[in-house]
Amino acid sequence: MPRLRRDVGIALACGAFVGLMVGAAYAAVPFYTWFCRVTGFGGTPQIAELAPSKVLDRRITVRFDSNVAPGLPWRFLPEKTAIDMKVGEVVTAYYRVVNTSGEPTSGTAGYNVAPTTTGAYFTKINCFCFTEQSMAPHETREMAVVFFVDPSIADDPDQDDLSTITLSYTFYPTRNPSSAATGGTTGARGGSSG
After folding, report:
1. What is the DSSP string of 45-107?
2. How many CB atoms are closer than 10 A to CB 176?
3. What is the chain's Cα-based Rg?
4. Alpha carbons 31 and 26: distance in angstroms, whole number
5. What does the domain layout of the chain look like in residue ranges?
6. What backbone torsions phi and psi does residue 164 show, to the nearest 5 degrees?
7. Is the domain covering 43-193 a CATH 2.60.370.10 domain?
8. CA dist 190 to 40, 71, 109, 131, Å?
9. 135-176 residue pLDDT tens
10. Is the pTM of this model over 0.70?
């Protein structure tokens, strides 16, 4: 009887361990995503609702990179390839997106900044990347991103020589496109078909 009790205890402990590992595996992705958003790790930009309270004289060039993953028939380009701005200044940049197919399509943008250490300071107020974007056949749309470089970057000695940040987006196709007629237009500046 003691041996049976011991075997049951070991089986329960092994089962609990396996359950804990499976739970940790499922929690790893959301935890990592949360960690990156909070710390800027891996070049993940921050999100804010308000502009900073001060603007510094220090200037930084922000370059814009745009990509479209295979399987999404879009043309996606920034209106300007770079902007020279002051640290703390709120800037709006526009991207032009064209659905080159004759079908409704939907995509979601992934994003990061380089160098990756600047993710803790590059802050978005509004962005098309926060929602799925649905496009009607041959639709053209301008999408905006509103951002600033946090003035606290001046307190980081590792960023003293920083002169350029690259904001990079990649649009990925979504599996079940929603109705392109209504479309997700967060950050959009209007659109047209044709």
Report:
1. -EE-SS--S---S-EEEEEEEEEE-TT--EEEEESSSEEEEETT--EEEEEEEEE-SSS-EEE
2. 6
3. 22
4. 9
5. 2-39, 43-193
6. -140, 135
7. yes
8. 31, 25, 18, 16
9. 999 999 999 999 999 999 999 999 999 999 999 999 999 865
10. no
